[in-house]
Amino acid sequence: MPQNPQETTNIKAQMRKGVLELCVLLVIDRGEVYANDILQELRAAEMIVVEGTLYPLLSRLKNDGLVSYNWSESKSGPPRKYYSLTAEGRHTLQAQSGAWKELAASMNALIKKYSV
Amino acid sequence: MPQNPQETTNIKAQMRKGVLELCVLLVIDRGEVYANDILQELRAAEMIVVEGTLYPLLSRLKNDGLVSYNWSESKSGPPRKYYSLTAEGRHTLQAQSGAWKELAASMNALIKKYSV
DNA sequence: TCCTACCCCTTGCATTGCAAGCTACCTTCC
DNA sequence: GGAAGGTAGCTTGCAATGCAAGGGGTAGGA
């Protein structure tokens, strides 16, 4: 059943692996954001993401020194972690952005060559 | 050290996850091929692949009924498995190709929005 | 016979998206 | 004041999958 929606969803889920980190870096680069901001942005871009994916990713980015955060009070609810990119994070963003463009170019060339 | 070649290689390796299956389907769709043909095609397209990646992938595609193969004698060396797509394989190829285009569109929109 | 090239395959590991569930804080309502 | 609900952050366990490393079998030449 390769055509039903479920199957297509899984395919896209697999493809998202590896580019989610780039997406998150892109959003954080815009300015200070906290987790829910990122979730909303990525959902709007049809890069479906859930909390259980994002929090470990943010922790990993923090441990790798690509992002930093500071606590900030909220008017309605518990305090939030507002993230921003470090210099190394901006560096990595550039590298991943380039890697994406190369991958996309390779893929498009392949698809064109075998013209589906 | 997000800029050294090693790091960039890892980034691209992560991104390749999920699209390799599509690449292999694309190549097999061209006509009957065996493992080394596929490896050469994908390396030429800068989608670096090694045997340890390709063989399990081919086995999975076979188990999923997306490809079939027949043994064929070789002039120089052991017999080869020549692969071809099944009807379901062609179906999946279409689906994955569509999924790729959607993902690429989402990514490019994101990159453009935050214009790196 | 031994060596090289070719071909297929398996095992074990690391990464990572995700479902599911938990804790804690703040506001609102009774 | 206490309970309920929403907000925010996080953890655990699982599944998928690329890859390094290694194995074994066949053909042909030195």
Can you tell me about this structure?
- The structure is a homodimer of 116-residue chains.
- The first copy, chain A, has 116 residues and is mainly α.
- Chain A has helices spanning 5-16, 20-30, 35-44, 51-63, 87-113; strands at residues 67-72, 80-85.
- Chain A has a two-stranded antiparallel sheet.
- In chain A, a hairpin with a 7-residue loop joins strand 1 and strand 2 (80-85).
- In chain A, helix 2 packs across helix 5 (87-113).
- Chain A is globular, with a radius of gyration of 17 Å.
- The two termini of chain A are 20 Å apart.
- The model of chain A is unreliable at 1-6 (pLDDT under 50).
- At the A-B interface, helix 1, helix 2 and helix 5 of A face helix 1, helix 2 and helix 5 of B.
- Chain A binds a DNA duplex (30 and 30 nucleotides) through helix 1 and helix 4.
Topology:
Two copies of one chain form a homodimer.
Chain A (H helix, E strand, L loop, with lengths): L4 H12 L3 H11 L4 H10 L6 H13 L3 E6 L7 E6 L1 H27 L3
Antiparallel strand pairs in A: 1-2
Helix pairs in contact in A: 2-5
The first copy, chain A, binds a DNA duplex (30 and 30 nucleotides) through helix 1 and helix 4.
